[in-house]
Amino acid sequence: MKNIKKFIALIIFFILILAATVFMVIKINERRNNQARASIISTSFVGYDFARAVNGDNNGIKMLLKPGAESHDYEPSPQDIIDIEKADLFIYVGGESEAWVEKILHDNNIDKSKTLRLMDLVELKEEETVEGMEETSHEHEHKEETEHEEGEHSGEHEEETEYDEHIWTSPKNAIKLVEAIQVKMIQRKPTESDKYTENTARYTAKISELDAKFREIVASSPKKELIFGDRFPFRYFVDEYELKYYAAFPGCAEQAEASSNTVAFLIDKIKQDDIQVVLKIELTAGNLAKTIAEETGAKVMELNSAHNVSAEDFERGVTYVDIMTENTEVLAEALK
Q1: What's the gap between Cα 54 and its chain centre?
Q2: pTM for the full model?
Q3: Chain center to CA of 6
Q4: CA distances from 76 to 80, 81, 274, 291 (A)
Q5: Helix segments in the chain, DSSP class H
Q6: pLDDT tens for each residue of the chain, 336 residues long
Q7: Rounded to an integer, what distance in angstroms lies between the CA atom of residue 77 and that of residue 11?
Q8: What distance lies between CA 265 and its chain's CA centroid?
Q9: Which of 7, 66, 294, 300: CA 20 to 30 A from 97?
Q10: b/e string for 202-233 if b means 16 or more Cβ within 10 A?
Q11: How far apart are CA 323 and CA 331, in angstroms?
């Protein structure tokens, strides 16, 4: 009898293991199928998140940029190009870091009505180099080219304006982006209009609350200045709330090492203006910010630009609203 009971228990155990394995395989296949049938493709996290918010979930929505990766280094794979061609809606930011997009759209004769370039939806701001900031390698190369051509091609060379790509860091802009994605998704699937409209209203209301919270923090804070020991992808954010800033590098800079002059400038600025927090951005080690903190006694904190999220946060379903909510707490501390 005991042997029979042991045998039955063993069978039950193996059945449970088999059931768990089957369940995992089903879930993996569901995820793969969702990716395979993705009808909305976004190059970036914000496009992905905003489309997900309008849709109510991420079914049929894919982000090309790998979670945790640097967006400015992204290069599309052959499969990515196939996915873009098959998508009902392709969302991209535009700008220098996504220059590859226009070539793909042109070379593959992709219908522009199925695309949405987010930088077309807001008033753009030019990239700028403020006092103490490192000159980017791109600026240096361009300056050398201009000096070489000067006199030889006088009047023929016209500098192309570079615009800051991080348009979503302004909550006001983010609302415009969500609403534009909603319009495109309704055009794609009119039968879901009511659902998309309701989801959009709910999400943009949350972003509006964040905007009000940022304004309240700035209005009640004694300081109006931020110091970044890192790149600076917050031009639209600081302009929205009339904040002053100093940083080591522009938002799209490739440099990782700051000159001694830049480090000394930021250290002096923190001491002179009695700044209590030195900021870093997401997905960076923050070594420069740590160095500055050691010299000044300032605290290192992260202000997240939402250009991408870690693999863990992506799996957890972290949203733009979640990120910006955490930013309200960081901002309040940084402006003390």
Answers
A1: 18
A2: 0.84
A3: 56
A4: 6, 7, 45, 35
A5: 2-36, 45-55, 78-86, 99-107, 137-149, 171-188, 193-220, 235-240, 260-272, 287-296, 311-316, 320-334
A6: 556 666 666 677 667 676 666 555 454 454 444 444 579 999 999 999 999 999 999 999 999 999 999 888 899 999 999 999 999 999 999 999 999 999 999 999 999 999 999 999 999 999 999 999 998 655 444 444 444 444 444 444 456 789 999 999 999 999 999 999 999 999 999 999 999 999 999 999 999 999 999 999 999 999 999 999 999 999 999 999 999 999 999 988 776 689 999 999 999 999 999 999 999 999 999 999 999 999 999 999 999 999 999 999 999 999 999 999 999 999 999 999
A7: 46
A8: 28
A9: 300
A10: ebbebbeebbebbeebbeebebebbbbbbbbb
A11: 12
DSSP 66: P
Report the C-alpha gap between 298 and 278 in whole angstroms.
Answer: 6
- Residue pointed to by tokens 């192309």: 160
Tokens (6 digits) for 175:
């609302």
Return the DSSP state at 163: B
Cα separation, 277 vs 57, in Å, equals 37
Tokens of 325: 């909510």
Q: Is 271 helix (H, G, I), strand (E, B) or coil?
A: helix
Q: Report how far apart, in Å, the C-alpha atoms of 325 and of each of 8, 55, 119, 304 are.
A: 53, 21, 24, 10
**124 and 173 Cβ atoms separated by less than 8 Å:** no
Q: What angle do CA 60, 40, 44 make, to 5 degrees?
A: 110
Place of tokens 């800051």: 164
Give the position of tokens 């209301």.
Answer: 205
DSSP 126: B
SS (H, E, C) 278-303: EEECCCCCCHHHHHHHHHHCCEEEEC
Helix (H, G, I), strand (E, B) or coil at 61: strand
What is d(CA 97, CA 119) in angstroms, rounded to the nearest whole number? 12
What is the C-alpha to C-alpha distance for residues 284 and 303, in angstroms, rounded to an integer?
A: 11
- CB neighbours of residue 335 within 10 Å: 20
Is-contact 180 53, C-beta < 8 A?
A: no
